[in-house]
Amino acid sequence: MTSEITLFVNPTAGRGRGAHAAQPAASALRDAGFSVRTVLGEDADDALRRAREAVAAGTGALIAVGGDGMMSLALQAVAGTLTPLGVVAVGTGNDFARALGMPIRDPAAAGRLAAEALKGGALREIDLGRVGERWFGSVLASGFDSRVNDRGNRMRWVGGRFKYDLAILAELAAFKPITYRMSLDGGPFREIEATLIAVGNGSTYGGGMRICADAVMDDGLFDVTVVGDCSRATLLKVFPKVYKGTHLGHPVVTVHRVSSVALEAVGVTAYADGEPLGALPLTATCVPGAVRVLGARSTTGD
């Protein structure tokens, strides 16, 4: 393995933590004897182009520094290749790192872990979801949760977590069940009324909300969590349980373990790894062993 590795940095992640985190992570890697070059980019498209160029040129690893958005961008560059991915999680949500048992907001520790994994060959192959040409590592969200994201993104006048709390309240006020058509593993479509449908390769989204609590990242299957048709009062009872994953035991919630799922609904935007994916319809496929992650915890569940 080449001793030159690439640090893929989002300087704006976590209100500027990305730029600060790159320095201790790079120092840890250099102290371990690696040559480190940094890839930034004028925007997301430019950064991705540069990351893909580094992968094509044979970099020893792509070490992503930032939040889930940056991890998502890095996945587009390394998925389906032999180039391992390192994770320095310093964003707001960090769900991808959390599911893999990686250090969170500790860039020096994450840098040391990546260096040790590179030297010792400690790689974990994990699955990824794929929609068209787009890869995702954690959860694809559609329905009530994605509408909260839509509304939150429109709230330019307020920032931080408070913005999404307000968006949840606003969406609750306007809440109506959504008519979906869903097909599992290429089977026939069936029409269902649901509050949301989440497709989990990983277990969490939104900074630790365990929407697909039992999802395993290397079993070749999605956990598709369906929160069915329920009243506003029931949703208010069920939704807080998502933080501990105890919502899965509620009668209104069902989980399907499948390798692919097709979803159709009118007026619903899907988000994958917290980033807008586009309007339904879509088909998501679980691709086993699509990426190799440095130093990820290897367990039977995440």
* Mean residue pLDDT: 90
Number of domains: 2
Beta-strand fraction estimate:
25-35%
In CATH, the topology of the largest domain is named Tumour Suppressor Smad4
Low-confidence spans: pLDDT under 50, at least 5 residues?
none
What is the CATH top level name of the largest domain? Mainly Beta
- Structural class designation: alpha+beta
Biggest sheet layout:
11 strands, antiparallel
For the terminal residues, how far apart are their CA atoms? 29 Å
CATH architecture assignment of the largest domain: Sandwich
Give the secondary structure arrangement, pairings included.
Elements: E1 4-9, H1 13-31, E2 35-39, H2 44-56, E3 62-66, H3 68-78, E4 85-89, H4 95-99, H5 107-120, E5 123-131, E6 134-136, E7 139-143, H6 144-154, H7 160-173, E8 178-184, E9 190-200, E10 222-228, H8 232-238, E11 253-258, E12 260-264, E13 269-272, E14 275-279, E15 282-294
Parallel strand pairs: 1-2, 1-3, 3-4
Antiparallel strand pairs: 5-6, 5-15, 7-9, 7-13, 8-9, 8-12, 9-10, 10-11, 12-15, 13-14
Helix pairs in contact: 1-5, 2-3, 6-7
Protein described:
The chain has 2 domains: 4-121, 3-Layer(aba) Sandwich (Rossmann fold); 139-288, Tumour Suppressor Smad4. Helix 3 links the parallel strand 3 (62-66) and strand 4. The chain is 31% helix and 32% strand. It has helices spanning 13-31, 44-56, 68-78, 95-99, 107-120, 144-154, 160-173, 232-238, and strands at 4-9, 35-39, 62-66, 85-89, 123-131, 134-136, 139-143, 178-184, 190-200, 222-228, 253-258, 260-264, 269-272, 275-279, 282-294. The protein has 302 residues and is α+β, with helices and mostly antiparallel strands. It has 8 helices and 15 strands.
